[in-house]
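We emphasize that the prediction below concerns an isolated chain of 280 residues; any contacts that depend on oligomerization or on bound cofactors are therefore not represented. The input was used exactly as deposited, without trimming of termini.
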Amino acid sequence: MTIIERPGPDAAEWDSLPLTAEHAERLRAAAISPAVAKEKGLRSITSAGDLPDWARWAGEAAVPAIVFPWVDIYGEVTEQIRPDAEFHHNGEGYKYLFPKGAGAVLNALRHDENAEKVLIVEGTKQGLAAASYAPEGVAVYGVGGCRNWSSEGIPDADLEVVDGKHVFVLLDADVSSNRDVYDAAIKLGNAAKAEGASKVSYMRLPATGTNGLDDVLGKKREERRAAFIDNLFKQAHPTKPCDAKPKPKARGIAGGSPAVAVSAAGERSEEHTSELQSHH
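Result of the prediction step, given as a token string:
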């Protein structure tokens, strides 16, 4: 039997970036190319003194961390910070940090007004992985969580980029098990249609749980990744993100207080909303 070894990271390319070796390896394992990491300005923060002013309140608990710049279609930058470990402050957990009032940001990972196809991907690393390996001629945009394409119930105005385009929506694998995520996918598709999208299709990850595109691509040899994403495009469903709509979480009343049956899917739902949590 022939054993196929996975190619290691291109040391020279990663070493040239302002990232620690550990952070570079995490990004490589998430199927993010060094070229995309460089283009998007990813960098490491290793001391609290290097945190931007708006994040200084977090102190040493927030470092080491990776800084992910989010750039909207007009070039305005909003930095997102991903501490190596989730931390708690005043009883709240923080996985990612965004400046207060940042709201929804459509991350223009591959902004192309002439593209006929638009891919909207859930998740920070997922979007970067898509930008690394999606077919040429496809515009790629990222949203921080399944509902973070809108603020206060109103879709982000930057969704205008889908006007006249064939839009492909790609959320994490829990779209097939979490009703909240499923509903968010449908609502995103409807919002795209309202902005003038010529067609909306739903790409389906052949995975379970809360795995995202970065997790799936990271398990594949680098030379297979582009072909894999191309196949996801070809197999995209014209109306639904999964075959069977997930059942909603059970809710009831116990002892006069709301009681929620928390499942693995329910926990993921909370994560979708906390990923963009910012401090008051």
